[in-house]
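Researcher: I'd like a structural prediction for the single chain below. Treat it as a standalone chain; there are no partners to consider.
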Amino acid sequence: MTSVGANAHPLYHWLSAEAPGLLGSKSVGWNFTKFLVGKDGPRLKRYAPTDEPATA
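Model: Treating it as a single chain, here is the predicted structure.
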């Protein structure tokens, strides 16, 4: 798991805080996690892959 580092882009900080993962995790497992954001800005949904990177 990759955590939100101090040098991460502000958008990444906002998305991971607004759309936590399973059990409230703010980390993103790998770069295929998607965030769906409404055109007016509010967070709508977070989608994480169910396959491990080695199997995809």
